[in-house]
Design brief:
The structure is a homodimer of 458-residue chains. The first copy, chain A, is α/β, with parallel strands linked by helices. Chain A has 18 helices and 15 strands. Chain A has a domain of 258 residues: Rossmann fold (3-Layer(aba) Sandwich). Chains A and B meet through helix 3, helix 6, helix 8, helix 15 and helix 17 of A and helix 3, helix 6, helix 8, helix 15 and helix 17 of B.
Chain lengths: 458, 458
Amino acid sequence: MNIKKIVLPETELPRQWYNILPELPTPMEPPLHPATGEPVSPDDLLPIFPMPLIEQEMTQDTYVDIPDEVLEKYLIWRPTPLYRARGLEAWLDTPARIYYKNEGVSPAGSHKPNTAVAQAYYNKISGTKRLYTETGAGQWGSALSFSCALFGLECKVFMVRVSYDHKPYRRIMMETWGGTCVASPSNETNAGRSILEKDPDSPGSLGVAISEAVESAVADENNKYSLGSVLNHVMLHQTINGLECKKQMEIAGDYPDVIIGCAGGGSNLAGNCLPFVRDKINGKDIDIIAVEPAACPTLTKGPFTYDFGDAVKMTPLLPMYTLGHNFMPKPLHAGGLRYHGMAPIISQLIVSGLIRSVSVHQLETFKAGIAFARTEGFISAPETNHAIAVTIQEALKAKEEGKEKVILMNWSGHGLVDMMAYEAYLAGELSDYTIDDEEIKKSLAELEDLPKPRQYRV
Amino acid sequence: MNIKKIVLPETELPRQWYNILPELPTPMEPPLHPATGEPVSPDDLLPIFPMPLIEQEMTQDTYVDIPDEVLEKYLIWRPTPLYRARGLEAWLDTPARIYYKNEGVSPAGSHKPNTAVAQAYYNKISGTKRLYTETGAGQWGSALSFSCALFGLECKVFMVRVSYDHKPYRRIMMETWGGTCVASPSNETNAGRSILEKDPDSPGSLGVAISEAVESAVADENNKYSLGSVLNHVMLHQTINGLECKKQMEIAGDYPDVIIGCAGGGSNLAGNCLPFVRDKINGKDIDIIAVEPAACPTLTKGPFTYDFGDAVKMTPLLPMYTLGHNFMPKPLHAGGLRYHGMAPIISQLIVSGLIRSVSVHQLETFKAGIAFARTEGFISAPETNHAIAVTIQEALKAKEEGKEKVILMNWSGHGLVDMMAYEAYLAGELSDYTIDDEEIKKSLAELEDLPKPRQYRV
């Protein structure tokens, strides 16, 4: 019988994370202080992050040891299985060999706990009592609530209004783990109130929710803020995925020609691909594809420039692809892909030509998700469906060209708490949102007076 | 670092199911034809089941080969991990070593696909075009829809009204896999219409839904019926769980003193415990506990007698513990535990003193589920919470007695599509349903004229 999945024993769990910073072909430009425009210092970040995470944000070590306490929690769901998508391959009748790394086996159902557990741990040992964060689709908020429960921390989550309304199950998950969750924009912060004054029915955005969480965190020295994507230390923690995956591909006796992941803030793609990007820097030929929604085309339509991570300009300026910190994306169901910016590391790798980006429309992603469910069995998160859509495109291209090809997809999470999105799709109620270029232009105009990175590109 | 979970490689997947029938200390009495009262013949069952499953229902072989096509589908999620509940143990401060077998990793999120995949396969090779079934909480209906998708069969599910209303996510899962799902009682069958005439707001019951599915199946020779619990062949397929678990306990270097599983129709408990019951028959000292809701106390308050499996008396008479085929359980959230009867195999083992039964109230089960989520990470199905509640009781008893003890719990599924039940619990809106003994007496009065098994007991 053919092997369906490759599962590493617990003894093969990687003991270190991989840090790509020192190996980037062009060094990253620093984050800048929102007030002074000068590079931020560790002390600038101390009101929002504990020192161990600030150090990880800036470290130039290629490998960072994973503490035993974090490894112990990782074992709740890691190492995760690497699947061969034999059902999907047969249905597509493709010569491509399709693999997917199943990050949906965590208690929260996605890759997010890889960094949530680490962040909760470092906050715990640094004396933090309560963590504030934001969440889009709810994957991050639930992952952090889960992780805070394991380490005895309080957790409060600002959830983007449109997801809060569409995805009550995610909120209840957070509450089951002992966290609290409020809809953003909320009346609990200045940031939230200022948005609600302009638009009481605002669907919210990750940018606004980040502002609310940061504002709450800095108000009390026992509290800190936690971010589920974008930042370097988040990408670092996520590399546990790719490090496992390299071992598993080796056992499979294959090496990926193509790597595909959806990209909202960039963390699931980074987690899977960064250890392979290292190989690419060293000469391997791999096509690495970041997939984003056509309705929030940060990488495919935005410039690479300095921008704020949040809507009310509290965060440092980051060098990244962005649609502008006030960009308000359409309420598409892949809430985790509605962020205006992109991780500086992923952005930098795109600037360097090591990763390329494509966008797909909502209906194509759900069609792909349905095909995946009926052939591979697992129901995927709407975000993950973006990666599946492009995986199917690439597999059909291989068929057309009559070429063997190894495709590795990062299956970032399951969709069992996103069933309302599937219902809307099956009922024919979903549509493809088209993005108005004028709207992007207007949103980007606000960046004109901000500093520009050396590698600035429109 | 301590091992958290034991994962067998795919090569260790058992190749045979275990059949306890030939090894029972007292032989089971036969199912009786509903019209004649005579033992049913294979031909009697042919309108509803394909011949390979009828043979498995009656076989006296101790082991039954698993077809390669079924093994191939099992590999989508099997072998499943055996966990050590170190987080829960630490929180309880118990000397007990608690293990749980995680059946929630299947695409449908429960143990149900173990038999659904096998039944879909045998129907497929027997020429069936469409399978009809019923579902309580929705775990079975979604498992069968998933399995039918894998083998290209149509699937139609009658879902108990109260769950249909409370658990839309389960219905959408079925539809995502291509199945169709209607609320029961429905207007599509005589059985459904007769119930609705008496009570248009009937919350439904598994007994009624079974009647509707059987009636639909027998109406067309291309269609068959599929049952997710109760019958011998279902218990047989589920033993893949316990067979894996025995290998895993051996690797762990432990052997269970106590085995705990929730019991609705009996299949998840049977799947885990039957290979251990074999050891018990051969002299091992194991305390095996079936846990049921106090609001549907089939084992703890019902007699062992002949009864119908469904509400309108279409199924054979089965020798089992029962509350009467017209018993209408309260709308408690553990919809999978609302069945009036119990698998004849489990019933027989209770009569023989090899398994004992206890009941727990709803609030205690959710309290246990919350504790489990915050210590072990995973959010459990409301049914599974019944097993967790008694696991906690047993672990605390071990603490009180200062005794080491090995507890094995069958973690039958996750609760990510049952979050509304958790919300109700967290909001203080749930209550403990007490059962009216008069109500049971009334329901049981309808069994007076039915045949009695030799081992009849009240």
